[in-house]
Amino acid sequence: MDGQRAEPAGTTGPGALLRAARLDRGWSQSEAARRLAAIASRDGAAGARPGSVKTQLSRWENGHATPAPEHRALLAELYGSTAAELGLEPAPGPPGGGVDGADRLRAALGRSAAVDDAGVALLRDQLRATAALDHRLGTAAAHATLTAQVDQLRELLAHCLDPGITARLAALLAAAALLAGDQERDRDAPDLAWRAYTVAGDAALRAGREDLSQRAGWGRELLRQDLDTPEPRPGGADRSEAPVALWVELGHDGGGEPSARDRTRAALRAAVAAHGAGRAEEAAAAATRARRLALRTGSAHTLARLEPLAHPTGR
C-alpha cells in the first residue's frame, strides 16, 4: 500500500467488481494504475501515464465511466480475470440460448436499411450539435457523446447496402472520427487518437473525400511529431486546431470564434514562447491561463506539457 487510507469493500453498483478485484490484491488505486500503465506501455499504448490512468481507474470503479474494449482487455490481464468476471461484459449465456448470430446480423442490417435521406440528415444534425458543444466547451463536455456517435456510425456503415447512403454515412463517420482523434489527442491518449484518425481516413476513402483523408493524415503526422518531440512547439499554428474540413462537412464554422481547444493551446504556446525568451512573469501568467483552460476543457495534453514549465530542469 502507498499510505492511502483503507477503502470500504462493500461498494455496490457499476465498477464494484473492479474495485473488489483491486482490494482483494491489497493494491491502492495508485499501485493498480502503475501496473496497468506498465501493461499498456508494453503493448505499445504510448502516453499511458500512471497519473491519468489512476483518474480513469477511479471513474471506472465509481461507475462514472465504462472501460472501452481495449481497456477491458488490459484490466482482465491486470487482475487475471475475464472481462465478464470483472463485471465489464455480460456473462456468456448457455449454448444455443438467447439471440443467435444470425438474428443479430438481421437486426443490424435492418437498422442500417432504415437509414434514409431523412435519417442521414438527423445523424448529421446530431453530430453538428456535438461538434458545436466541443467547439464551445472542449473535450470534457463532448467526449462521451461523440464516442457513442462514432460507434453508432461505424455500426450503421458496416451494415449499409445502399451505395448512396453508404457514401454519406462514410463522410459523417470520417468527420466524427476526425474530431474524436482531436479529442483523444487532447486527452493525451495518442494510441486512441491514432486509431480514430485511421478510422477517419478509411471512412474518407469510402466516401471519396480526399479533403477528409488528408486531414486524417495530418492528425497522424501530429501524433508522430508529439512522440518525437513531446515538448510543445512555440511557433506556428497546430494544424489539428483548425478542422476546416470538419466544419465544412457539418455546415458549421464555429461562429467565427476560436474553439476552446484553440484557446487552450494558444495559451500553452504563449507560455512556452515567453518561457523560452526568459520572460518569467509573462510565462507564468500564460501558463496559469493555459492550466485554467485545460482543467475546464479536459485537456490532459496541455497539462502534461505545462509540467516542464512549472518544474524546469537545471542546466
Automatic annotation (TrEMBL):
One Gene Ontology molecular-function label: DNA binding
The HTH cro/C1-type domain, residue ranges: 18-86
Annotated InterPro entries: Cro/C1-type_HTH, Lambda_DNA-bd_dom_sf
Transmembrane portions of the chain: none
SMART domains from the UniProt entry: HTH_XRE (SM00530)
Gene3D superfamilies hit by this protein: lambda repressor-like DNA-binding domains (1.10.260.40)
Protein name according to UniProt: HTH cro/C1-type domain-containing protein
Gene source species: Pseudonocardia ammonioxydans
